[in-house]
């Protein structure tokens, strides 16, 4: 009996290490969130025949309309500042600038400019916001006292890293506000690329610049294993909208449909890169288009798919109305999923899912009701005042 036990013990010790390792379950890696900003994407664009990937995304996950209030205007800088702060906030009068070390900021190294202005020494692969001191002072002077970058800081507190890719640059006009969503309170994003390297010059196009999707996909794959929260700004529709006044409507419509098809292809590609059991993808139009603003249509659009999510309407304690959330609900929702602590200054709350709803169909009905009510309210109020 003793010899048998001794032989069994020796056999265990003499087993190859790989056999023992095979019996030990691997610890799952950290979760990941990818926020894809598709400003000017409309609810009416979601058609199964023309945009199958986006239609599938918004029908198979949680969806909501976005209350796009900020501490200022409904512009991309104020929108990005609000998401970054977890409460209504102010951006800059113009697009917020974010740079990497491979670029030039007013003929100088942007990392050196950032260090001179803030006293913070960034790493070589960081992205930085050189205008951070201005943004801090602007928000400190208002009634709101928002602190930008609290989402990034919350993630950094538990050792998670952030990244940003893409931009809405026009020739000679950098437009990179959405990258700020990934920065911390020091104005630093761990890694990424928001430079012209992700753009393609094409003089045959009315806008002249477009996203280089091959380069974007390559950079995403390089960043995917290094950052747990990644912001991707697909800026083509923003560029197009800003150039609309110079285009015939037929050309505008043609280009818009082409760009939407590219968005759709990228969405399908992105979902194939991620583990649906350890990640969530958010696709959102965070800022109303100038056309929508002129029609008093102030709502954005958001869909989320991934781990533990069924089709349905998103519900936030902030609004307490199924299918409507706020910009400042994004930070606590992203942090909660990634296991990061909430910031004490956040006014938003983490969303949940109302699974018994019809998702996209309910959302379309809700949007029609809201827009009809808003359209009728203005003439009624005017008539009463007269």
Topology:
Layout: H1 2-14, H2 17-23, E1 32-37, H3 52-60, E2 62-67, H4 76-85, E3 99-100, H5 110-118, E4 127-128, H6 132-141, H7 150-156, E5 162-165, E6 188-189, E7 191-193, E8 199-201, E9 209-211, H8 213-224, E10 229-233, H9 236-242, H10 249-273, E11 279-285, H11 290-294, E12 299-306, E13 312-315, E14 324-326, H12 330-338, E15 352-354, H13 360-385
Distance between the termini: 104 Å
> Using DSSP, what is the number of strands?
15
The helix/strand class is alpha/beta
Low-confidence stretches: 5-15, 18-24, 380-386
Kindly provide the radius of gyration, computed on alpha-carbon positions and rounded to a whole number of angstroms: 23 Å
* Element string (H = helix, E = strand): HHEHEHEHEHHEEEEEHEHHEHEEEHEH
**What is the residue-averaged pLDDT?**
89
The portion of residues assigned to helices is 25-40%
Number of helices: 13
* Proportion in β-strands: 15-25%
Largest sheet: 10 strands, mixed
Overall shape: globular
Give a summary of the structure in a few sentences.
The protein has 386 residues and is an alpha/beta fold. It has helices at 2-14, 17-23, 52-60, 76-85, 110-118, 132-141, 150-156, 213-224, 236-242, 249-273, 290-294, 330-338, 360-385, and strands at 32-37, 62-67, 99-100, 127-128, 162-165, 188-189, 191-193, 199-201, 209-211, 229-233, 279-285, 299-306, 312-315, 324-326, 352-354. It is 39% helix and 16% strand.
């Amino acid at each position: 009996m003793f010899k048998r036990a001794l032989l069994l013990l020796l056999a265990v010790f003499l087993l190859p290490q790989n056999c023992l390792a095979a019996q030990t379950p691997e610890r799952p890696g950290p979760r990941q969130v990818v926020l894809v900003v598709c400003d000017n994407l409309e609810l009416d664009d979601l058609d199964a025949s023309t945009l199958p990937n986006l239609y599938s995304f918004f029908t198979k996950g949680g969806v909501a309309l976005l209350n796009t209030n900020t501490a200022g205007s409904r512009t991309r800088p104020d929108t990005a500042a609000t998401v970054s702060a977890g409460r209504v906030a102010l951006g800059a009068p113009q697009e917020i600038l974010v740079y990497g070390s491979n670029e030039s900021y007013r003929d100088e190294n942007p990392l050196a400019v950032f260090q001179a202005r803030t006293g913070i020494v960034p790493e070589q692969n960081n992205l930085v916001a050189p205008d951070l001191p201005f943004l801090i002072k602007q928000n400190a002077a208002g009634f709101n006292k928002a602190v930008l970058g609290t989402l990034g800081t919350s993630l950094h507190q538990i050792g998670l890293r952030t990244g940003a890719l893409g931009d809405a640059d026009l020739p000679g006009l950098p437009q990179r506000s959405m990258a700020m969503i990934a920065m911390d309170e020091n104005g630093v994003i761990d890694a990424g690329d928001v430079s012209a390297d992700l753009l393609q010059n094409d003089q045959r196009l009315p806008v002249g610049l477009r996203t280089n999707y091959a380069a974007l996909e390559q950079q995403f794959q390089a960043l995917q294993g290094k950052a747990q929260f990644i912001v991707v700004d697909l800026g083509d529709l923003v560029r197009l909208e800003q150039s609309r006044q110079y285009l015939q409507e037929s050309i505008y419509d043609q280009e818009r449909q082409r760009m939407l098809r590219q968005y759709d292809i990228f969405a399908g590609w992105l979902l194939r890169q991620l583990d649906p059991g350890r990640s969530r993808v958010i696709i959102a139009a965070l800022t109303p288009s100038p056309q929508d603003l002129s029609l008093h249509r102030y709502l954005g659009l958001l869909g989320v798919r991934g781990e533990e999510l069924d089709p349905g309407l998103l519900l936030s304690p902030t609004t307490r109305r199924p299918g409507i959330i706020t910009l400042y609900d994004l930070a606590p929702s992203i942090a909660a999923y990634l296991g990061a602590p909430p910031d004490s200054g956040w006014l938003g709350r983490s969303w949940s899912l109302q699974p018994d709803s019809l998702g996209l169909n309910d959302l379309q009905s809700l949007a029609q009701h809201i827009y009809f009510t808003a359209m009728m309210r203005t003439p009624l109020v005017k008539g009463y005042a007269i």
